[in-house]
Structures are given as structure tokens and as C-alpha cells.
Write a structure and sequence with these properties.
The complex is a heterodimer of chains A (about 160) and B (about 1150). Chain A is built from 5 helices and 9 strands, in the order αααβββββββββαα. With about 160 residues, chain A is an alpha+beta fold. Chain A has 2 domains: about 50 residues; about 110 residues, no CATH class. Helix content of chain B is about 40%, strand content about 15%. In chain B, strands 5-4-6-3-7-8-2-9 form an 8-stranded mixed beta sheet, sandwiched between helices. Chain B has a 7-stranded mixed beta sheet with strand order 30-29-28-27-33-32-31, with helices on one face. The chains are: A alpha+beta (about 160), B alpha/beta (about 1150). Strand 4 of chain A pairs antiparallel with strand 1 of chain B, so a sheet runs across the interface.
Chain lengths: ~160, ~1150
């Protein structure tokens, strides 16, 4: 995706002031929210919501992260929902959104439970496989021999790649 | 594209099927775009970057086309996504759009619902593309995190995480030794956070490292936009209440320690890079050692390269320190000892601390030989750059010139110099890539040894030399000399070749020489003046600085000398307790001299000017080397040059720069033209603000009322401006750090590829300019502009006085034979060191005539004055900022001052003979005043001014000490009046027209200088004629009497000519202008008489020459009558000063 990145960059450089000012309001609001959060409990809660407090650890690769949400409908997700309960993090690569303003793609799915053995696994290709639901690679090997051939082929490819 | 769209219009209406051969969603963006919006009241976009999305669609479509699957599959019903059979691609995706798939829902929000295009099928297929895109983006983001974690796990330090945690349970002091690249600086703070510590401070020797580390660690903790990780450096702070990890410079942490004793706020301290043995680093080690006893919960982690680890381990042995050694990650490096033949002959001659021989000029041939060796042995297809270490800027130039010549024949070389005097933009070039088939050759000082890491280096050529600053306490000068490096430095240099792959290190010295190198470099504490650090220690309340547990103690003598000097500066009292002045000085993050300037200037009416001056003198010289070597730069500078001293030239340049800022002009280009490093000017502005804040915070100056009220139009404009600036700033902040570019051939040394860089960068693009404008609104800029202006003689004079008040005793006097010698033969003498030159870049070196007396300045001597010295009213001394010895000892940044006036005002001890015709300052400079009474009079005035100045200052300082918040208005007004009086009289004093001679005393002269006898006519002194409220005492040491804090009267032996003068004087009677009595009196008797005679007539307490008529004689002309409101009298013929004095007296009596 090098081309995309270069394109994004050129877009950034040509960004006109109008666009900046729009972001400006956003940032001022965020800053103000932060500044006001000291005493009011409500604000405190709002701040805490930004602090990840669910521990996630992949049962296979040990990847350890603190995430913000477990379930299908994270409050910070806009226009989308997840098909299974997942460990979801607010997108660390985007500036935080305003409360009243939805933000697109402001999430990263980190992992889920294996639908067979219930082990927590991350989304990495060396740890899990998704077809209608998440499988840990072990269970995937065992269970998917009844799946459509396309799925089996893909799984085989994935297993091979990771070797 | 247009072809296919035409076709698609025709076909899509006919059949439902979506065939990518004749249809593309990209051609119908307006019909499908609404599906990218949330189906709720916000209708906000659900993709982060729509442009990126359409690019993806385009690629996705062409991928399907080329895979031979141009007909899009039927979309899957939302309800079927959990069923395993039949196979559908969408079942790989765990996401679902919130917007439903009814036709109604699919059409909602569409502004261009062409029924033929936006069919239900296509809309649902488009939805699946959106999901595919979303899934792709998710995988990308996840992979980014996973990759980050993987690279963290691969760091050598990661294997020790467990061990660190375990050790920390057992001990309070943990030493982690690991070489560059092992990851300790980035990972250990994070580990601690994981272990549950929530307020972690990590010190760094360099500001830049604080900023970049905090950015890196925040990124690794996925907290780029949060505030878990912050930094605090001299000019900037990025820290909130929620900050858990703080990167802070060593100096700042020490200052925090000084303010908040025991650092309650931190639960772990990490001291990083302690092997560098900085002054502050060493000091911190000692302080934290003490701190461990005072704060039992604190954990301390020391991190160093694997250099002399045992030293640190032993130092904390009693505290039970544990040691973890982490292996570095270096590729094998081949070492080749290649001593140049000429050096080998003299082989072994250099013990590492003996000055390397053959220092006249470096021979670049061996370096070029190695370059050509590399060319022979390694094909250019094998990547790998060269890093050459030499000792200094001149050496860099020599090698660069030769290498450039070599590169002309071998055009695959790009030569890049690297040293700290280089403009920052030029420094950055070393990080750029060489194009394929080319190599860069970086010629560097030891800056690339540890401070800067350049990746991709495969070959290191090490001269084995380093220029090191050392401090010579015997002449209070710094010395920059070339030495052999230490073994550990040589190893560091070598290590730079093996960071990205196996490498080779060519050492231009022999193995035998290497064996004779010192093991480690000299710690900074042995190489710098200790005043600042000792003062800070005392200010922190350390009971006895002499017993401070330094890891390696400096020599006792150096400590004693520093304490002595602090006493001289009046920062310490005789009993070594800190004085109010000392306390305030310790608050200022600058050298003692500059700090003193700031404080002495606090009673100066125009404090703004002092702030600017002090800031200007505290930064690295903005004029780069090029400013002095390039003819064009010199020409450009000419208009700004001041004959008062280089600091005034700099001040003018800064003023000019501000003026350009005022007019919104391109300052970058201008700076380049003059050879100025613009960054320094920004630093001056920042530092000045910092000074102002510090002085305001400790009530030394009044806060400026918040400027003039802006009109609403102005406010609106400023508001708009601020918004724009903030937007630019944020954009820059969130942008990736400077990307490494590919070097062009002419970008190297001597190429002129740089010029246009200054044109295309508009002022708004420059983040420093944005910062500057954010900090300085019109009003502030105006103050700054005004404060940097010193074109009036009077302003210059006052500023010079302030400078001397801080820098004394850094005074130099011209050699008596300078008048008949050429420019390079002009010598100056300081108290401690004779025969010093002025730095060749200085104005005074070139235009040395301004330091000489003109023939017309030389006066005829009275017949009784027989010594050969020249009589004049215009003798000058130099006051210098520092003394630097490179090839020769040089005076740096000097100003010129009227000699007698400056000396009488600032000398620590002023000794006189009975008639005050002979005055010796600091037992070093002797002033002869052969015109009767003139010496006495000048001294009286000096004493008065000096005492007034110090009274005003100490009032301010003691108020501070007692925390007197607001002084009574009356008192403040009186102070203001006194201040005004002080500065008026100082200017008068400095321009006093007194003829005298000046001579440097030699040790032999001192033997017979003092009488060592009590004054014979002591009983006459019932009143102190110099300072009425100072009690006269005998001076047992020199003889004579103490008549003021720094003045001993009558202790000098009379000499031939003073006796002759007295004899001549006695032949004339003297008429007192006040009481009109004619009496025969000697100088002091006159003085005493004047005191007692005038005392009752307050209205004219004149002691100096202006011949005003007797007060009260009503016949005098009353053209300039002054009516005093408090005593309701008309007063005549009073000078401004007299009026002020009168007012003061009146107020006093009215109280």
C-alpha cells in the first residue's frame, strides 16, 4: 500500500486551512474536556472510559494488551458491529474523537475466544483463523475438515505461511 | 475510464449482473457514496479516509478483473453469515454494517439515485466491498501493533524483563548495563509501568533524547494521543496529571530536587546514560544515594553502557545494588590498525593524556587512502557508508576538502561533515540515504560517538583523536586541546560500524598506541568550573559540600577555589552560608555570571532589556563558522557590527531578526545569508521568556500588566491567527517525523543544493516560526523588539554596566606595548594569566584601534608626576565572558569599559593612599590620579553608587526572603525614585572626565605596596567621609582603615610623586565653597570638612565638581526653580539628582 501512503501524504500537504480549522475545533474541545476533567465525576468517568482496563492475553503467542471493550457493540464503533464477542481497543493511531461526534474506524479488534475450546486468541494469522467465527489454529485444524474446500485451502495456505 | 463508463451505462440497465469489464463503482461514486455514511442522524462517514477507500475499490476491481472473475458474486444475506455452508467470501469477515440491506435502507441518503445504476444488487455488492475494505484496514492496524510487539520482544533487553522484576522485589538499586541498541532506554520504563509503578522519572543527559524517547515510548504503549508518557526539558514541558512516565533532563530533575525536597512525586527514578559521566549525572548519583536514605520507598535504576560498570556497582554496594548485564546487538567488526607512517615513527610517544604531537595541521592522506582501499576491496553494489572520526571542525574541513577532491574522480562518494556547529538542517542530512551504488562518507567529531546514531555505517575510520574541553582553575579559563581518545571511546567508535551488519574499523594508530590509551574518558566534573553545581548543592541544603559523596571526587583545591569564588560573587557569606543573592542565583538555570547579571539588573528600570541581553549571552553563538569564513556573510554582517563588543553586534542582529518577524518577512533566508543558525534566535526568545517567568515567580520583577487592551478587530485577527497557527502546529505534531530522504549528489559537502530550500519553505511551514508566533502576539513582539534595541549610547552604557556587574572579575588590560604593535601582536592580561589574544572572530581583533588611546587622548602630566605611564581620561579595560584556550588563549565575547570607573565600581578590594591619588584595585591594577582631589572624588562617588546599588538589591532580595508580598506603595515609589537616581548617576559617573594612569602591578610591586600600619590620624575620623553609616575600623592586614565594604583607605605606601603632589598642594590654601572659609587642609581633611560643613544643608549635598552657588544665597538666578510639595519650598539650581535626593529626604521626614 505504498502508493496509498504517498497519496495520503500529498493530500496532507495540500490540506487547506478550512480543513484544519475543522479539526481545530475538535482538538480544542478535547483539550478543554481534558482540562475540565479534574473535579467533576462525570468527566472523570468519561476519561476513564478512555483508559483500557480489560486485560487481553493471547493463549498462543502471549501477546498482551490492555483493551477497552469485550463484546459485539463497542460504544466507540460507528456504523458497524461485530459478528462475535471480541476484544476491541480504541484505535491508538487516531486522535481521540469528541463525545458527540462519531469517528470512523476508531477501533482495532485484537482477538476473540475460540468458538470451540474457548481459548482467548489474537487476530494474528499464526494464532487464529476466522470463518463464520474465530477458531484457534489448533481447533481449526481439527474442525475445519468438514468445511468447504475453499476454506480448507485457505487454512492450509495460512498454516504453511506461518511455518 | 471514460470508455468503460460509456459502455456500463448501456449495459447496466439491461441486466442485473455486475460485470467489472463494463462497470466500475469508481465511475459512479456519487451514486454509492452515501453507503459510506452511517445510517443515523449523524450521517458521518464510516471510513476514515474516503480517497483511500476509492483507491482500494479501484485496485480490488482490477484484481478481480485480472484474476478472471469480473462478475461479482451474489451478495450474502446478513442472516446467513454464521452458516458454514455454502462457501461465501464474506464469511471470512467478522464485521457487519449497521445499515440494513432493504432497498429502502440502501437508498437512504443518496442524492443521485439513478435507478439504473443504484440497483439493489449493486448496492449490496458495494456493501460487501466496504466490509472487505474494513476488514483489510483492521488487519493492517492489527499487524502494525503485532509488528511493534514483535520488535520489542526481539530486543536483547526483553530476555531480562522477568529478571528485572524479580530483582526489584529484592533490592532498591538496580544497575542495568547494556550497549546501544539493547533497548534499555525505551523498554525499561515500560516494564516498570507494567510492574505497576505509576510515577516513573527517567533522566537523560540531552534534551533531544527526552523528546524523542517520550514519543517512541508513547507510541509503543499505543498512547500517541494520550498523556501517559511525557517529557520535560529546559524550554518545553509535555506532561499532565495523568503522566506516568516522564523523561526529564538531568539538570531539570536536580532543580526539582532543589525545590521539592526528596521528590515525593516519584516512586521510581531511572538515571540513564550514567556512563557518560556528565557533571549533572555525577551529581545526581550522589544526590540519589542520599535520597535513598531519606525516602525508603523509592526505587532507583541506573542504566549505562557496559563501560566501567564496576565503578557504579561499588558506589552503591552498601545500598545492596544488583547488577544486570545485557549483551548488546552488534555484528562482528574487523579491526585494522593502520598507523600512518609518519605517526608510527614517533610511535608510542603519546600517553593518552599527553597532547598529541604533530598538531599543526592534519594530513588527510591516510583517510583518502582508506577510502580508496574500500573502493578496491568492496564493489559499490555492496551497500555501506563510511564514518570518519576526527577531533575538530578544522580537521573536518581538511578531510572533507581532500575527500571532495577524491570524490570528483570517484563520483559515487557523497561527503558530509557533521559537528555541533553545523546548522541543524545540515546535521540532518547525515540521516538521509545515499542512492543505490553510492556511499556517503560522514566526517564527524565525537558527536557521532554516542550522541548521534547514524545507521547504515559499515566502515569506521578512527583518527583516535578527540578535542576535549578542560577547565584550568589557575586562570579560570577553558581549554580546548587535542588528546588521544580513551580505550572505551575507541571501542564505541568501532561499534558504530556494526549496527546494521558486519563492518570494519580502520584505526589510524598502532596497537601499541592503543594499549597506552587511558581506560575511560575524563569525567566532566574534572573538566569544568564547579561554582554552579556547588551553589546548587548548598541551595539544596546539603550540610557540607566538602563531604558530598561524589562517585569520583574532584580535587579539594578545585572545590575550595569554587567556594572562594562564590564568596567573591557574594553568593556565599563568609561563614559559607548561602546569601539571599546566592539563593536567587541557584534558582536561575544559567551560569553564575549570567544569573548575577539578571539579579543585578532587577533594580534596573528597564528590566526587559536585561532579560534579552542575558538570554542573548546564554545561548550558543548564533553566528556559525561560515559567518566568519564566507566573505559574503562578512559583508552582510558589516552593517550590524558594533564597536562596543560582539555581544552588541549579536543584539543588533537579533533586533533586526525581530523586526523582520514584525513585518512577516522570511527570516530563514536572511539568517542563511548572514551565516546565522536561526534556531539560536528562537532559543533566545524562549530563554528570555523563561527568565521572565522565573524572575516573576520569585517576585524579583513585577508582572507586566496584560498589555494594552486589544480592540475587538485586533482580537478577532489574533484569534484567527492563533487558530491557524495551532492547526499548523498540530498537523506537524501528528505528522511522521522527518522522513529520510535520498541524497542527491550535489547535496554533499561544498555542493550548493541547499539554496532553494529557503525559498520554497514559506514562513508558515516552519514549526519554530509557528511556535514563535504563538508565543508572541503583537504586544509581546513589540516589547521584545524594544528590549533588543540598544542604539542609544546611554542604553549601551547601562547594559555594559550590567554585564560587568555579572562578569567581574573577568577583566583584562591591554599590554603597555600594544600601541606600537600590529593586530596579531595585541596582547591582554588578566589577573591570573598574562598575554592573551582576542579571539580572531571578534570585532576587536580586527579593529583593535578602538582599544587604543588616540594621540589626542594623551594629556600632559603635571611636573611632579614622574612615572612613565600615559595620562589620559580615556583608558579602557576589557570585560570578557570567558577565556578559551585552543591554539592560543583567547578572550571571548569582550566589551570595552572606561577603566577607572569600572574598576572602582566593581573591584572586590579597593585600596588607597592617604590622599587617594593612588588606588589599587584587587591588588592588581594601580590607578594614579595626579590631579589633586580627583581620585578622592571619583572614589567617593563610586562608593556611594555601589552602596546604593547593593542596598536596593539587598532590599529586593531580603523582601523576597521574608516573603513580603506587596510592598507599601509609598516604599515602592521611593525605591523607584532611588532606582532612577542610581542609574542617572551611574551614567554620569561612567562618563566622568578624570585623568589618570593605569598600570598592572607585578608580584614584586606587591611587596612594598602596603603600609601594614594603623592610620596615624585615626582620631580625625569621627565621621566616615565616604559612607556615613559605615563604621570605620582598622584594617589589621594591610594597614589603614576600612571605610566601606570594599574600600581600605590609607593603606598604600606613599611614593615619590604622591609626596611631591601633597607638598605642592600645601602651598595653596583651599576655599570651601560652602562656608567660604579659606583653610590649608589635605585631601581627607577637606573631605571631612565638606561632610560636616554641608551636612545641615540638605538641599545641596553635593560632593562633586559641579560648582553650584551656595544654597540659600537668594541672589542666585532662579531660572530653574523646583517647588517641593511636601515642604512647600522653592528650591533653586538643583540638578535632577538633587531634586530626587531632596524628595527622598522630605518623604523620610514626613513619615
Amino acid at each position: 500500500m505504498d502508493g496509498t501512503e504517498a497519496f495520503k501524504e500529498s493530500l496532507d500537504n495540500n490540506e487547506d486551512v478550512q480543513l484544519n480549522v475543522k479539526n481545530e475545533e475538535e482538538e480544542i474541545a478535547v483539550l478543554e474536556a481534558e482540562a475540565n476533567c479534574l473535579n467533576s465525576e462525570k468527566q472523570e468517568a468519561k476519561f476513564n472510559e478512555r483508559v483500557p482496563n480489560i486485560d487481553f492475553q493471547c493463549g498462543i503467542c502471549d501477546m498482551t494488551e490492555s483493551v477497552h471493550y469485550y463484546g459485539k457493540r463497542p460504544p466507540f464503533l460507528y456504523g458497524l458491529q461485530l459478528l462475535e464477542d471480541s476484544f476491541v481497543m480504541r484505535d491508538p493511531f487516531q486522535p481521540p474523537p469528541l463525545r458527540w461526534k462519531p469517528k470512523s474506524e476508531y477501533f482495532v479488534v485484537i482477538g476473540a475466544k475460540c468458538s470451540v475450546c474457548q481459548k482467548i486468541v489474537c487476530k494474528g494469522t499464526e494464532c487464529s483463523f476466522y470463518y463464520t467465527c474465530t477458531y484457534c489454529l489448533n481447533c481449526a485444524k481439527n474442525c475445519l475438515d468438514v468445511a468447504p474446500t475453499e476454506v480448507q485451502a485457505k487454512l492450509r495456505k495460512q498454516l504453511e505461511q506461518d511455518k | 475510464m471514460s470508455k468503460s463508463s460509456k459502455r456500463s451505462k448501456k449495459s447496466s440497465s439491461r441486466d442485473e449482473e455486475t460485470n467489472l469489464i463494463n462497470f466500475s463503482f469508481c465511475d459512479h461514486k456519487s451514486s454509492f457514496r452515501h453507503l459510506l455514511q452511517g445510517d443515523d442522524k449523524h450521517s458521518a462517514s464510516i471510513v476514515e479516509d474516503e480517497v483511500d477507500f476509492w483507491k482500494f475499490v479501484n485496485k480490488y476491481e482490477s484484481m478481480l478483473r485480472s484474476a478472471g472473475q469480473p462478475i461479482l458474486v451474489n451478495p450474502l444475506r446478513d442472516s446467513k453469515v454464521k452458516e458454514g455452508e455454502p462457501f461465501h467470501k464474506r464469511k471470512y469477515i467478522g464485521l457487519q454494517l449497521e445499515r440494513g440491506s432493504d432497498y429502502e435502507q440502501l437508498k437512504r441518503g443518496c442524492h443521485n439515485s439513478d435507478e439504473r445504476v443504484l440497483t439493489k444488487l449493486k448496492a449490496r455488492q458495494f456493501r460487501e466491498i466496504i466490509l472487505t475494505y474494513m476488514d483489510f484496514k483492521q488487519k493492517e492496524k492489527f499487524a502494525k501493533i503485532k509488528k511493534l510487539r514483535k520488535s520489542q520482544k526481539n530486543l536483547p533487553i526483553a530476555a531480562f524483563k522477568q529478571k528485572i522484576q524479580e530483582e526489584l522485589k529484592q533490592t532498591r538499586v538496580l544497575i542495568i548495563a547494556g550497549d546501544t541498541g539493547c533497548g534499555k532506554s525505551t523498554q525499561v520504563p515500560q516494564y516498570l509501568y507494567e510492574f505497576g509503578y505509576r510515577s516513573i522519572a527517567c533522566t537523560q543527559p540531552r534534551r533531544l533524547a527526552c523528546v524523542s524517547l517520550s514519543k517512541r515510548v508513547a507510541h509503543e504503549m499505543l498512547d500517541d494521543y494520550g498523556s501517559k508518557v511525557g517529557f520535560q526539558i529546559r524550554f518545553e514541558k509535555n506532561k499532565t496529571k495523568n503522566t506516568n512516565i516522564l523523561f526529564i533532563t538531568e539538570g531539570l530533575l536536580l532543580r526539582q530536587l532543589a525545590v521539592e525536597t526528596n521528590l515525593e512525586q516519584y516512586d521510581v527514578l531511572i538515571l540513564d546514560e550514567i556512563h557518560e559521566r556528565n557533571l549533572f549525572g555525577d551529581f545526581l548519583l550522589g544526590v540519589t544515594k542520599c535520597l535513598l536514605h531519606a525516602k525508603p520507598d523509592l526505587k532507583l535504576i541506573l542504566m549505562s553502557a557496559t563501560i566501567n560498570v564496576e565503578l557504579f556497582h561499588n558506589y552503591f554496594r552498601n545500598e545492596g545494588a544488583a547488577l544486570i548485564e545485557v549483551p548488546g546487538r552488534l555484528y562482528p567488526i574487523k579491526t585494522m590498525f593502520m598507523p600512518p607512517p609518519s605517526l608510527e615513527l614517533k610511535g608510542g610517544a603519546g600517553g593518552s593524556k599527553s597532547v598529541a604531537k604533530n598538531s599543526n595541521r592534519l594530513d588527510p592522506a591516510p583517510y583518502i587512502q582508506v577510502l580508496s582501499l574500500i573502493d578496491q576491496k568492496y564493489p559499490t553494489t555492496e551497500r555501506g557508508d563510511v564514518l570518519i572520526f576526527v577531533s575538530g571542525v578544522n580537521e573536518i574541513t581538511t578531510v572533507c576538502d581532500a575527500a571532495k577532491e577524491y570524490a570528483e574522480k570517484n563520483s559515487h562518494w557523497i561527503i558530509l561533515p557533521l559537528h555541533s556547529g553545523l546548522a541543524l538542517a545540515d546535521q540532518d542530512k547525515v540521516f538521509d540515504y545515499a542512492p543505490d551504488g553510492m556511499r556517503k562518507c560522514i566526517v564527524s567529531t565525537n558527536i557521532a560517538e554516542t550522541s548521534l546514531t547514524v545507521d547504515g555505517v559499515r566502515f569506521v575510520i578512527d583518527s583516535g583523536k578527540v578535542k576535549e574541553m578542560s577547565y584550568d582553575a589557575s586562570c579560570k579559563g577553558q581549554r580546548l586541546k587535542e588528546f588521544w581518545v580513551s580505550k572505551s571511546s575507541a571501542e564505541q567508535r568501532k561499534g558504530r560500524a556494526g549496527r546494521t551488519g558486519p563492518g570494519t574499523c580502520f584505526r589510524l594508530f598502532s596497537e601499541k598506541q592503543f594499549a597506552s590509551f587511558e581506560a575511560y574518558p575524563t569525567p566532566e566534573i574534572f573538566r569544568v568550573p564547579l561554582e554552579t553545581i556547588l551553589l546548587q548543592m548548598i541551595a539544596m541544603g546539603l550540610p557540607n559540600v566538602r563531604s558530598f559523596p561524589f562517585i569520583e571526587s574532584p580535587e579539594e583545591e578545585c572545590i575550595e577555589q569554587a567556594i572562594w569564588s562564590l564568596k567573591q560573587h557574594n553568593a556565599l557569606a563568609v561563614d559559607e552560608k548561602i546569601t539571599p543573592l546566592g539563593k536567587s542565583l541557584s534558582n536561575l538555570p544559567v551560569e553564575i555570571t549570567i544569573g548575577k547579571m539578571l539579579l543585578m539588573g532587577c533594580v534596573f528600570p528597564d528590566v526587559e532589556k536585561i532579560l534579552t541581553l542575558a538570554a542573548t549571552m546564554s545561548v550558543q553563538n548564533p553566528f556559525t563558522n561560515r559567518a566568519y569564513t564566507d566573505r559574503k556573510c562578512e559583508q552582510e554582517r558589516e552593517a550590524l557590527q558594533s564597536d562596543q563588543g560582539d555581544i552588541f553586534t549579536l543584539l543588533r542582529a537579533y533586533h533586526e531578526w525581530l523586526q523582520m518577524k514584525w513585518h512577516n518577512e522570511n527570516t530563514r533566508k536572511w539568517c542563511h545569508k548572514l551565516g546565522i543558525e536561526e534556531q539560536r534566535f528562537y532559543e533566545i526568545s524562549k530563554l528570555r521568556n523563561q527568565f521572565q517567568n522565573i524572575l516573576e515567580n520569585c517576585n524579583m520583577t513585577c508582572k507586566n500588566a496584560d498589555g494594552t487592551q486589544l480592540s475587538s478587530a485586533e482580537r478577532a485577527r489574533r484569534h484567527g491567527e492563533v487558530r491557524q497557527l495551532k492547526a499548523i502546529k498540530r498537523k506537524q505534531k501528528y505528522q511522521e517525523p522527518r522522513k529520510r530522504k535520498i541524497l542527491k549528489h550535489n547535496h554533499g559537502y561544498g555542493g550548493d543544493g541547499g539554496e532553494d530550500e529557503f525559498d520554497d519553505a514559506t514562513a508558515g511551514d516552519d514549526i519554530r516560526n509557528v511556535d514563535f508566533r504563538l508565543q508572541h502576539d503583537t504586544a509581546k513582539l513589540e516589547i521584545l523588539l524594544h528590549s533588543s534595541k540598544a542604539d542609544k549610547q546611554r542604553d549601551v552604557l547601562l547594559l555594559k554596566l550590567i554585564i560587568v556587574s555579572g562578569f567581574y572579575p573577568q577583566i583584562a588590560i591591554a599590554d603597555e606595548f600594544n600601541y606600537c604593535k600590529s593586530g596579531s601582536q595585541q596582547f591582554f592580561h588578566t589577573f591570573l594569566k598574562p598575554f592573551i589574544s582576542i579571539h580572531p572572530n571578534s570585532y576587536f581583533a580586527k579593529y583593535f584601534d578602538v582599544l587604543k588611546l588616540n594621540d589626542s587622548d594623551i594629556l600632559d602630566k603635571p611636573s611632579y608626576y614622574t612615572p612613565k605611564q600615559v595620562l589620559s581620561t580615556r583608558h579602557q579595560v576589557l570585560c570578557y565572558q570567558n577565556l578559551l584556550e585552543t591554539a592560543k588563549p583567547y578572550l571571548m565575547n569582550s566589551i570595552r569599559m572606561p577603566a577607572a570607573q569600572a574598576l572602582l565600581l566593581f573591584s572586590y578590594s579597593v585600596d588607597t593612599n592617604a590622599s587617594v591619588s593612588r588606588v589599587v584595585c584587587d591588588s592588581w591594577l594601580c590607578l594614579d590620579f595626579p590631579v589633586p582631589e580627583t581620585g578622592c572624588e571619583l572614589l567617593s562617588r563610586a562608593i556611594k553608587l555601589r552602596r546604593l546599588w547593593s542596598k536596593l538589591l539587598s532590599q529586593k532580595l531580603t523582601d523576597l526572603d521574608k516573603n513580603v508580598e506587596s510592598q507599601s506603595v509609598k516604599r515602592e515609589k521611593r525605591d523607584k525614585d532611588e532606582e532612577a537616581e542610581l542609574w542617572e548617576s551611574l551614567i554620569d559617573f561612567m562618563s566622568a572626565n578624570v585623568s589618570y594612569t593605569i598600570k598592572r602591578l607585578l608580584p614584586a610591586d606587591l611587596k612594598s605596596l602596603y603600609t601594614h600600619e594603623r592610620l596615624s590620624n585615626f582620631e580625625k575620623f569621627d565621621i566616615n567621609p565616604f559612607a556615613s553609616d559605615y563604621e570605620i575600623t582598622h584594617n589589621e592586614q594591610k594597614g589603614g582603615i576600612n571605610v566601606a565594604e570594599n574600600v581600605v583607605y590609607g593603606c598604600l605606601q606613599e611614593v615619590q610623586w604622591t609626596l611631591s603632589m601633597e607638598a605642592e598642594m600645601r602651598q595653596h590654601t583651599w576655599m570651601c565653597k560652602t562656608c567660604e572659609m579659606e583653610i590649608a587642609l589635605d585631601t581627607v581633611e577637606k573631605l571631612l570638612h565638606k561632610r560636616s560643613c554641608i551636612a545641615p544643608n540638605i538641599s545641596s549635598s553635593k560632593t562633586h565638581e559641579t560648582s553650584s552657588p551656595t544654597p540659600g544665597s537668594s541672589g542666585a538666578d532662579n531660572g530653574n526653580a523646583y517647588y517641593c510639595e511636601s515642604c512647600q519650598k522653592n528650591l533653586h539650581n538643583l540638578s535632577k539628582i538633587d531634586i530626587l535626593k531632596h524628595k527622598k529626604y522630605c518623604n523620610k521626614t514626613a513619615d
